C-alpha cells in the first residue's frame, strides 16, 4: 500500500482546519501524528477515512485518487480504524466481533492468537478489560486485511502501565500485518518510541515530518523544540559554530539565526549535570521525584535564567540549595533566534 497526500485541505463548513498537507507513507511504516489539542489530528484521520470530504488537494491510496470531485466512499478505501473508545459490537462475543462480515475466518484465528485473546474467544465485550477490548478492536481491524490503518488515540482510555505494554503489542501487530499506519496521539513518549516517523502539527500545518530522533535532536522550529521533550532556553552569544553561555562555550547548530549575535539555546534536562560543589553557579528552585530520577529546576546565578535538569533519584537537593550546573551534552546544541529580541535580525 502506498499513501500519498498532496496539498490536502479539509475542514468543517467554511472553516479550514487542515492546510496544504503533504506526506507519503508506504510499506509497513508507522507515522505518529502529534500536536496541541485542536490542531487537526483527528480531522486528518477523518478525511483519510472518508468521513469528512476533501476541500482541495488530493489523497492517493494505491490506485484510488480521492479529490473534492471524486469522493471515494469509506467502504471502498480498505481502511482499518481503531478508536479510543474501542467501538465493539456489544451483542457479539470476541470471535464474532473480530469476524464480523468476514469471509475468510482463518484471519480471525490468526489475530486471536497473535493478540493473545485465545482464552477470551467466547467472552462478551462488557466482561473484558480496557486493554483486552482494544486488542479485540485491533484484531477486528487487522482481520479485514486493510490497506491502511488509522488509529485515533488508541491508548488514551487505559492506565499508564497498560499503555506502555499495549503500545508495543499494537506496533508489533501492525508490523506483522505489514500495513502502513497513521496513529494520532497526545503522548510524546508514545510518538517517539513507536513511530518510524513523527509529524508535528501546528494549527493544521505540518511543522516537521521526520524520524523521532531528528525531530527531537534537530527540531526545525522553536515550536517543535518546545513540543517534544522538556525544553528550556538559555541566552547565549553566537559566534560561528559556538555559543558563549553563562556555563561556558558550547558547540551549536544555528536553526533560525544569522551567524552571530544574541540567540537562545535549546537545552533539555539531560544536557546537564547537577552537583554539590565548592564553586556553585546556580540555585535549586524545586525538584520532583520521578521514580528512577528527579527533575529539578535551577536558577543560574549569572543572568538569573531558569533551566530544568534531570538527576539520579539518589541526589536529593533541597530548594534554595547552592548547586553546580555544567553542560555535559556531547552533541551541538540547537540555537534559535532570541524570542522578542531585536538583536538577531531575520536570516536573509
Ligand atoms: N464536527 C466539527 N464541526 C466543526 N468544527 C469541528 C468539528 N470537529 C472538530 N472541529 C474543530 O476542528 C479543529 C480541529 O479539531 P480536531 O478534532 O481535528 O483536533 P485534534 O488535533 O484531533 O484535537 P484533540 O487533540 O483535542 O483531539 C478544532 O478547532 C475543532 O474545534
Automatic annotation (TrEMBL):
Pfam entry (one): ABC_tran
Protein name as catalogued: ABC transporter ATP-binding protein
Domain ABC transporter: from-to ranges: 3-228
Gene Ontology MF term list: ABC-type ferric iron transporter activity; ATP binding; ATP hydrolysis activity
Keyword field contains Secreted: no
SUPFAM superfamilies for the chain: MOP-like, P-loop containing nucleoside triphosphate hydrolases
Domain of life: Bacteria
Cross-referenced InterPro entries: AAA+_ATPase, ABC_transporter-like_ATP-bd, ABC_transporter-like_CS, ABC_transpr_FbpC, ABC_transpr_MalK/UgpC-like, Mo/tungstate-bd_C_term_dom, P-loop_NTPase
Keywords for the protein's UniProt record, in alphabetical order: ATP-binding, Cell membrane, Membrane, Nucleotide-binding, Translocase, Transport
CDD domains recorded: ABC_Carb_Solutes_like (cd03259)
Organism per entry: Oceaniferula flava
Gene3D superfamilies documented for this protein: 2.40.50.100, P-loop containing nucleotide triphosphate hydrolases
This protein's GO CC annotations: ATP-binding cassette (ABC) transporter complex, substrate-binding subunit-containing
GO biological process assignments: quaternary ammonium group transport
